[in-house]
Here is the input.
Amino acid sequence: MIEQVNTLIYNTLCSNTSIFLPTVGTLVVRRNPATMASARRVNAPSVNVTFTAEQRADSLVNLIASTADITVERAEDIYNQWLQNVTSDGVVAISGVGVVKNRTFIVDKDLIATLNPQVTPVALKPRRRALVWVLSLLVVAVMAMAAIVLIPKREIVTNTVAVVDEDQTIMQSMDTTSVEIIEPIVESVVADDVLTMTDGWSYVVWGVYSQKENALKYKELVENRYGDVICTIYYYKNNLYMVSLYQSATRGEAIRRVEELKTRHIFFDEIWIFTNK
Here is the structure.
């Protein structure tokens, strides 16, 4: 069970998806753009994993439930048992991923190497530098995308997973989530309109907040920037408030909406999907 959950976290991060560990914090995948190494050389884009104590992605509990096709309650049992086994003296050590200690995260070197395949810096010729610069960035971007697609994933062992009450389930397939973007809070507040989610529906999530006022302010922030994006606030679990950009009876429609929004602007780069089961 411990190895399976570790592998699930590893594969999720390798798919450039952040993940929230309840009572611990969020492992956030950060994508850094290409940079100039010198006047004639360009470094490829890079990927790193950072940590925040806030919830900025979907929960590992939900991912376990979706992967194993079990209830959230059963997934919570698995998660709590896993967390107890990987925690010692307040230090959470995730094999192949890294260590969370004193609210900081030390990423495993092998994970960073996997996320950042070696790409030779692109050399710029002295003449026609502007044109070569643009072409070089395109080449680096294509190489980086190819590297992401080719990142090897660990095989999830399909042995029986033990839960607290000794029931059994099997890890079968992966799921994908995305992360919440934190933007500066605006001053004004829009009308208070908090709804209850529908069972089985999927929601494109901008963020989850402990204060209703913050959810209202972020709703206005998004709608002010993109008039055609209508946000809705829903009650989330544990007395939290969720800002949704789109909601659908099918997860496939939600995924297509996420893909469409992400192509529009980096503003939507870290939205994610929550399915209310």
